[in-house]
TrEMBL record:
Residues 1-29, 296-315 are annotated as: Disordered. Keywords: Cell outer membrane, Membrane, Receptor. This is TonB-dependent Receptor Plug Domain. The lineage of its organism: Bacteria, Pseudomonadati, Pseudomonadota, Alphaproteobacteria, Sphingomonadales. Pfam families: Plug. It comes from Qipengyuania nanhaisediminis.
Amino acid sequence: MLGSPAIAQEADDDVAAPPSEPAPQNSGSRVFEPAFFTQFAPRNALDMVSRIPGFSISGGNDNGQRGLGQANQNVIVNGERFSSKSDSLRDQLARIPADDVIRIELVDGNTTDIPGLTGLVANVIYESTGPSGQFRWNTGFRAYNTEAQLFGGEVSLSGSSGRLDYTVSLSNDNNRFGADGPTLVFGPDGSLIEEQYSKFSGGFDNPKLSTNFTYRFGEDVTANLNLSYGEDFQFNNVPETGKPIIGPMRFRDVRVRENGPEYEIGGDIEFPLGPGKLKLIALERFERDNFTNDLIDSFDDDTPPDGSRYHQTNGEGERIGRFEYGWSMWDADWQLSGEAAFNRLDRVSALFTLGPGGEFEPIPFPGGNGGVSEDRYEGALSYSKSLSPTLSLQAIASAEFSTIEQTGAAANSRSFKRPKGSLALTWKPEDDLDISITAARRVSQLSFGDFLASVSLNDENENGGNNELVPYQSWDLELEVNKGLGKWGSVIFEARQGWFEDFIDWFPLEDGGEARGNIGSADRLHLELSGTLNLDPLGIPGARIDFDAVKRWMSVTDPFTGEDRPFSYDLIDMIDVDFRHDVPRTDWAYGVSLFSNNPAGYSRRFEIGRGWEGPTFANFFIENKDVFGLTVRANYGNAFGARNYFSRTVFDGPRPDGEVLFSEEVDRRIGPIFRFSVSGDF
């Protein structure tokens, strides 16, 4: 069985040979048979896709995509895309047993009948062969500041009964994290005015029950039903001691709590109609968040305590209906689609101050209450055609019509019409070389929370609401080059240039405050190089290096100062390198990974700042794929002692005219991170 621990090489070989390179197919795809993955002893389809040389999973509707829309992921299953928005691509792939996978094809997205897919796409072909279960338990702890992470993982059961295929899973995505260290606060002249020490700890748990049912009414009629229900629990604690040069010692207690339920009901059915096939899709998703932030300062003299409380309840939902009708005509694949999406946010907020008697007393905060809704209708026509054995074309013409309404203290209603679409060409001059170019017009998804006011107590910031906010639009030009290197592996180069209109960042309000708003035009160039280097040719059988490097150049005009700067909180550069060695003729594997990233800072009306962690995270792991039939993995993380950093400068008035009020530098210890996981089948 492929899902059982296995040794990749035959015992009579003195030196193990690497898995054979997948053979090109007539369709222009590369096919990875199950035998290719044997040395990794995969448990599920996720383990297999993750081991495809040079391929990285990306996209999916869980990434905040506008409605369902055109496909944006690079993994499909049995020629179809996942439609759930609550479960990630990785979650869904992890529930497909490895024994059920027949093969994985790397195909040109243009040659599929799924509009929106471009570049290299992994198509997982599988068939349920009977009841099969798998489980994964993740646990661990950190040396400082946090409680142990005990109850992470997932158990799932997949199978079939007649025409029905089913998957049921119970999971808990969780983590525990923290850091401790000093914060130095400096005055306008650079002199130290206060030394603080804080100990940050937090965590989250997201227990969830997910089910998927697929029923085949006939050879050409298939229906899917996805159901999920979960609860979200998060907490942060930040006790802090402040020692000013002048004045009493201060003791700050900051607590954040968030919880609430979430569910999703989604389904689709596809059946023949006329010369083509019609697919109907429906989805209902809802999440409620109950958020509370308390901050209390007490002092070592007779100064009375000071504090604030902020409470917020959000109800956020999405309802989608969509049809897709595809047919073949003039040696091309056509699809006509339409979508109606109704998004909503209802928020109730309350702000309190600590009274003389030690009780929190309410203060007016009307801007934090209200609702936002968007009714959006979209239509699209797509055309996909193979122009030659090595050249394919995909064109999509689309338009959306939307109405955004806001209730509460800043009620408003606006309607929009926006054209969208894309044109993609893929050229495959050689069996191991794919080049795709895409030009697209896109519309972003708004964060409805930006329409309403909110506060951050610990940073002493208030975010105003903006009832004139509109989605930013962009023109995008994208290049992807995928080159196979034979027995050495493969490499992917990506270049993406975006030109943005109505770009969203921090924006000055007329009342002297600030909010998220549209600040004009912007542009960004993204370069990325990723791939896999097999070390078998160098005499290290079973070893490989996976790497990913990103560099971005950004330009936007700061609405406060008129200066050119990067996008707030965006990524400037990143490098991720992983070495893994599956030792031949054993069940052992070990490896090391190095990760470093450089995020941009932020720019607000009264302050600028930047938070990051580093400089470099190093993780070591060792794995055995057959411990009484289980895969056991131990991981030692942050071996190089990466730290948590934050710096900001606060001004006494709006920038650029305001004078420096104070600046602060945070330098916190994260410490070593230990992780342990056990996975198996049943």
